[in-house]
Design brief:
two-stranded parallel sheet, 2 domains, two-stranded parallel ribbon, mainly alpha
């Protein structure tokens, strides 16, 4: 398989499981797939604990899918450590 789309539950297991076997398995899965797609709904569900609005989740998912720098000074998006951001000032 050369591409994958991940469900919210996958990320919950990956980031919050205390079982090393689960985290090792999810890490192997992530490394196995060449092309990855994360929907804005998944981004929103994963980050809703930090109160990121849906619109910001869509922007973050788009930047992630494109492997693009997100030009923003929005603190919600800046919280997402997987994204690179910059601002004009």
């Amino acid at each position: 398989m050369t591409s994958a789309t991940y469900d919210t539950r996958f990320f919950v297991e990956h980031y919050y499981s205390s079982d090393p076997e689960v985290t090792n398995s999810t890490t192997r899965e992530i490394r196995r797939e060449k092309d990855k797609a994360i929907s804005s709904v998944v981004v929103h569900e994963v980050y809703r604990l930090t109160h990121i609005p849906m619109a910001d989740s869509i922007i973050a998912a788009t930047a992630s899918a494109l492997r693009a720098v997100c030009v923003t000074d929005d603190p919600h998006i800046s919280k997402i450590r997987e994204l690179k951001t910059r601002w004009i000032v």
